[in-house]
Amino acid sequence: MREDLLQYVWRTRQFDLKDLEDTEGVQIQILDFGEYNTHAGPDFLNAKIQIGEMLWAGNVEMHVRASDWRRHQHSENRAYENVILHVVFDADESVFRAQSLDNQVIPCLILKGRISGELIEKYQTLMTNENWIPCEKSFEHVSDLTKTMWFERLTIERLERKTTDFVQLFNYNQNDWEETFYQIVARTFGLKINAEPMLWLAQSLPHRVLAKHKNQLFQIEALLFGQAGFLEKIEKTIQNTEGVYPQALKKEYDFLKHKHNLTAINAVSWQFSKLRPPSFPTIRLAQLAGLIYRSSHLFSKVIDCEEVKQIRALFEAEVSPFWHSHFTLTGEASQKPTVKKIGNDFFNTIMINAIVPVLFFYGKYKKEEDFVARALRFLHETEGDKNSLVEQWSNLGVSTHSAYQTQALLELKNEYCVKKRCLSCAIGSAILKHRKTS
Questions:
Q1: Quick one: residue 13, left, alpha or beta (phi over 0 = left, psi -120 to 50 = alpha)?
Q2: By the 8 A CB rule, do 329 and 246 touch?
Q3: Domain-ending residue, one of 342, 372, 405
Q4: What single-letter DSSP state applies at residue 332?
Q5: What is the DSSP letter of 212?
Q6: CA torsion 193→194→200→202, rounded to 10°?
Q7: 310 shares its domain with 236
Q8: Residues 278 and 160 in one domain
Q9: Is beta strand 44-51 parallel, antiparallel or unpaired with respect to 35-36?
């Protein structure tokens, strides 16, 4: 038995409520189970319970064993002075209020024998099996309505969790929307593997500096590649044509670095291994340069967009000609030059991880629900993530067409299934509530 299961059966009323009495044989009637407390302190707050002839209003604390009260030193903690009922699975000893309250015995209710054996067995199965998700064998038996409503909640939950991170950046940038958005977009351009170096780069090279060179793609590239540390080892003595453009970038950066008093980040931070060449950080920087060149004050333009296709048009940035035939600054030219535009899959990634969360955050911050609704609509209209995790959900019969759905599935797997938070999951709860019929 675990304490979280006791909390679950209490808040869902899934135990035998008939003829309740405390360990002294005094009758108990629960008028209000209280509010589940996810913070420090008693497990349920503001309960109302009739114990004998006395109506009590206060808090409820739960433990597997009554002696856990003593082990957790609740008697010395004033936060527990207002506990009116101690709910346990095993009552191995009596517990008392703090000494300031004359060491009164706290009424104790035992749940052992009042919880369905089938529920306990299902819970243990969820907690101990090693399937891809704990409920893999029972998932198909949960109603589509339950799943759909839960997925809706999970999508919002994921967006809210992302905005917590954005708030920190927003505060760091002193409530500057353009600067914050620029940093979020830059981080997204780094994908997961280079997200942090991209953010460091953006923070070392303020948007306001780039804005001064918004009409010069060459200067924007020089600033980005220079701040990334990629120009430090460019040899000034290279004589072949391959080195002409990198040398020119380095020369320009050396001038701009002193002009704006810039300090580059360490180039060793960047990862190239395990990436396909089109996703190399050098290519992503070239694309970011093209985006900044084509769309200065990007945030202001994005919040004016009412359709995904309008945002897509903003991101139709092209790289400079050098990158048509190169993937790095020092590598040989490709035999098959290509115009390295932002592809559909990468644009979807930008929508999911930058555009939609920022619009959602902006709407919440400004208390303008139109932006929140627009963010959710954009997510519906964006193609879903493509990865092995989403494929696994698809194998379980879950629709994965839009990003609205796949974001919910990512949240479910990573924040609930992996952490075995089945008791906080609507699907897990539905499985535990389902009873076999004889």
A1: left
A2: yes
A3: 342
A4: P
A5: T
A6: -130
A7: yes
A8: no
A9: antiparallel
* Residue appearing with tokens 């243990």: 124
Query: In three state form, how does the secondary structure of 253-306 look?
Result: HHHHHHHHCCCCCCHHHCCCCCCCHHHCHHHHHHHHHHHHHHCCCHHHHHHCCC
Distance CA 39, CA 280 (A): 43
pLDDT at 438: 42
Beta bridge partners of 235: none
Q: How many domains does the chain have?
A: 3
Where does a domain end: 298, 323, 342?
342
Extract the tokens encoding 162: 């992302």
In sequence order, what are the residues at sequence separation of 6 or more whose Cβ sits closer than 8 angstroms to the Cβ of residue 431? 122, 126, 135, 138, 141, 142, 422
pLDDT in tens, 149-199: 999 999 999 999 999 889 999 999 999 999 999 999 999 999 999 999 999
Gap between the Cα atoms of 12 and 413, Å rounded: 23
Q: What is the pTM of this model?
A: 0.85
- Give residue for tokens 């707050």: 45
Which two structure tokens, joined as six digits, stand for 167? 């708030």
Contacts of 159 (CB under 8 A, 6+ apart): 356, 357, 360, 375, 407
State the maximum Cα–Cα separation within the chain, in Å, rounded to a whole number.
97
Residue 33 exposed, middle or buried by CB count within 10 Å (0-12, 13-18, 19+): middle
DSSP 3-state of 30: strand
The model's pLDDT over 274-326, given as tens digits with 9 standing for 90+, comes to: 899 999 999 999 999 999 998 878 999 999 999 999 999 999 888 999 999 99
Do the Cβ atoms of 15 and 114 come closer than 8 Å?
Answer: yes
Residue type, 132: W
Claim to verify: residue 334 and residue 263 sit in the same structural domain? yes
Q: Choose among 243, 217, 16: nearest CA to 119.
A: 16
